[in-house]
Amino acid sequence: MEFCNCNSFLQLLSLILTLHLSISPTTQQQLAAGDLNALHQIMDTLTDVKNGGFFSTWNFSSPENPCSSFAGVTCSVVNDKLRVTALLLGNGFSDSPGLAGTISAIGIYDLTELTQLILYPGIVTGFIPSQLGRRLKNLRVVSLTNNRLTGTIPETISELQNLHTLDLSHNKLTGVIPPTLASALPELKVLVLAYNNLAGEIPEFSDESQLIHLDFRNNMLSGTLPETMPATLRYLSLSSNGLWGPLNSLPSSNLVYLDLSMNKFSGPIPDSFFSSSLSSMYLQRNNLSGELPPPSPFFESYGPASIVDLSHNFLSGDIPNFLESVETLFLNNNHFTGKVPEEYVRNVFAGAMRTLYLQHNYISSFPVENPRDMVLPDGVALCLSYNCMVPPTVGLAACPASAGGAFSRPFRQCSVFNIGNSIG
Ligand SMILES: *[C@@H]1O[C@H](CO)[C@@H](O)[C@H](O)[C@H]1NC(C)=O
Ligand SMILES: *[C@@H]1O[C@H](CO)[C@@H](O)[C@H](O)[C@H]1NC(C)=O
C-alpha cells in the first residue's frame, strides 16, 4: 500500500498532519520481528526532553500491536508482512521540547519498507548515518529539521532513488553539498538545507532534475550561480551566503519566488528577472549596479501581493515605470536619480502600492500636486527621506528608524547629478 503520490509540498504537509492526527489501522497481524527490534533500539537511543511524552505510548510489554498503539508509527502489509512504513519521531506540537539523543540506532536500518522518516524539532545530536542511504531504499520523505545534527551530509543519500523530499534545515551540518544530491535523484522535488554551516559551491544540477523547491539560505556557500538550474524550479532561496558573480538569465522561467538577497552578486539585473509571474523577488543587499533594464517585450504588469526588493545595492538611473503595479517595492539605499514616475504616486495614494521605500537615493522629485492636502490611505508606507529634494511630509511619516533623521541629502552630494533645480 502506498500512502500518497505527493505531487506538491503542500500535499506533503497535509499528509504529515493527517498522519500525525490519525491512528494507524489495527490489524490482526504481528509486526515483523526485525521492525519490532528496530523500534526497541530507537527508543534506546532517543529520549523525550523533559516530559515531552512522545515515548509514553511505546510500551513493549503491552499486548497491543505497536502499529496501532505506538505514537508516530504507521504500518502497512508489504509482501504479506506487517512492516513499519512511516516513522514520525516526536509529537510535533509547537510547544513540545522534542527529543534528545541520536538517530544512529543500528536497528533503524532494518526498517527497509520505510517511506517517511520525520524527526520533529528537538535537540537530537550526532551524525546523519550513511546507512540511511544504503539501506532505506524506499524512503520518499526525509525530514530531520531543527535539531543539532552535526557532520556532513552523507553522499549515500543520493542512493535513495525514490526520494521526493529532503529537509535537513536548521541543524549544524558542515562540509559541502554532495554533488550527487543535485544530479542523481530523479524524483527529488523539495530540497531544503537552509540554516546550516554548509560551505563550497552549489553543485550542478542534472538536466533531468524535477526540483520544484530549493532552499539553501543561511549557509556559507560561495562561488557563482550554477550555469543551469532545474527549469522546473518554482521556489529558489540562496539568501545569506557568500555567492558572487553576475546574474545571467533567470535560473528558471517557472519561478514564482526568488531570494538571492545578502550575497555579493554584482553587475546589472537582466530584464528576464522582471516578470509578473515572479511575484516575489528579493535581491537586496548585494553589489548590483547599472540601470534597471527596459521591460522585456512580453512583460505583463505585476499583480496584488507582489513584492520586489532591490534595496541596498548600487543601482542607478531613473526609476522605471514598469514597476508601478508592484504592491511592496523597496528601492531604497541605491543611486537612483530623477523623478518618481507619476504612476507610482497615483498608486500609492490609491492604496494599490502599499509600501514604497525610496529613501537614500538621489531622487529629485516626488510629483504630488497639493502636498498639504495629501493623506496616505491606512496601512500604506511611503518613505522618501535622504534624497535630492525636500520631500512632502507624507513621505516621511512611515520611514523606518534605519532611514535616519535627515530629510534631505546635503546639497553638495546632489550637485554631481546636475539636478539641484528641484530643491525647495
Ligand atoms: C505496559 O503494559 C503492561 C501490560 O499491559 C502494563 O502492565 C504496564 O502498566 C504498561 N506500562 C506503562 C508504563 O503504561
Ligand atoms: C562590487 O562592485 C564593484 C564595481 O561595481 C567592484 O569593484 C567590487 O569588487 C565588487 N565587490 C564584490 C564583493 O563583488
Automatic annotation (TrEMBL):
Positions of the Leucine-rich repeat-containing N-terminal plant-type domain: 34-76
Keyword Transmembrane helix: no
Primary subcellular site in the record, as a coarse category: membrane
Subcellular location: Membrane
Entry-linked Pfam families: LRR_1 (PF00560), LRR_8 (PF13855), LRRNT_2 (PF08263)
Signal peptide limits: 1-28
SUPFAM superfamilies per the UniProt record, alphabetical: L domain-like (SSF52058)
GO cellular-component term (any): membrane
Keywords associated with the record: Leucine-rich repeat, Membrane, Repeat, Signal
Organism superkingdom: Eukaryota
PANTHER family: LEUCINE-RICH REPEAT (LRR) FAMILY PROTEIN (PTHR48009:SF1)
Name of the protein in its database record: Leucine-rich repeat-containing N-terminal plant-type domain-containing protein
Species this protein is from: Lactuca sativa
